[in-house]
Amino acid sequence: MTIRTATLNGVATIEIARPEKKNALTLAMYQAMADALRAAVSDAGVRAVLITGQPGMFTSGNDLEDFMQRPPQGMDSPVFQFMQALLDCDKPVVAAVTGVAVGIGTTMLLHCDFVYVSDEARLAMPFVSLGLVPEYASSLVLPQLMGHVRAAEKLMLGEPFTGADAVDCGIANAVLPAGEVVGHARRMAERFNALPPGAVRDAKRLMRAPLKDQLQQVMRTEAEIFGARLRSPEAMEAFQAFFQKRKPDFSKF
Ligand code: COA
Predict the structure, then answer these.
(1) Nearest Cα to 164, choosing from 176, 154, 147?
(2) Is residue 94 part of a domain?
(3) In this predicted model, what pLDDT tens digit does every residue of 100-129 receive, in sequence order?
(4) What CATH number does the domain containing 33 carry?
(5) What are residue 12's DSSP bridge partners?
(6) Is residue 65 part of a domain?
């Protein structure tokens, strides 16, 4: 089992659990997370969703083997179903970033409502280093959130950053000691048990509404370029270099 789900005390937990591959996300895992988010929306007993990982790892992002062998085919593919299900989730979503958060491990945080990061976590969006481009509307949201030049460090250079940096640039609420991050995130999620659920949903919808259409449009444009780049020689060199545990050589392009 690589995605564990459980609902306890009004909180639906989605736990990424594939530690042997640093919690890399396969197609089946995206599908399981999409299904769990939709189930949380339709379960009246759920007041908030908690997304978490394993000690030291949130997720190392998309499984790179899948990127090579089973690249996403169109907007119905499991990765886009997950992205859409998170965007459509009208209940509060809390993320406990338990450790390394790469690629979609960071971009999904832009679509959560509360983000708590372990003091051992490292975040990174190395899309360009992989011959790819930003996804999940990060090319829109990040420059808006922190300004172009700081977003360029993260999206064009793929510079890794800490939880404290994530708080500083508006991606996360707080940094916590590694052993406390999940408990704190759960307690924050449980606070919604004492709040009126209809008002919470309406507030979230209002906060997300102004960017909603633009997000969808940008996601589609990113996905077209991302899909083409997945088949590019630059991306193949980057993926092969990762699995061969060597530095990629882009000098020939
Ligand atoms: N896809 C597939 N396999 C992955 C993976 C991924 N995204 N991330 C890690 N793994 C695998 C490694 O291949 C390795 O497998 P092996 O034991 O069979 O050799 C195992 O998980 C452990 O990874 P390793 O790189 O040895 O761990 P680390 O602690 O040294 O580094 C990371 C952790 C996350 C920094 C590093 O694994 C990494 O950079 N992963 C790729 C991240 C990435 O580019 N994601 C895509 C973003 S779009």
Answers:
(1) 176
(2) yes
(3) 999 999 999 999 999 999 999 999 999 999
(4) 3.90.226.10
(5) 7, 49
(6) yes
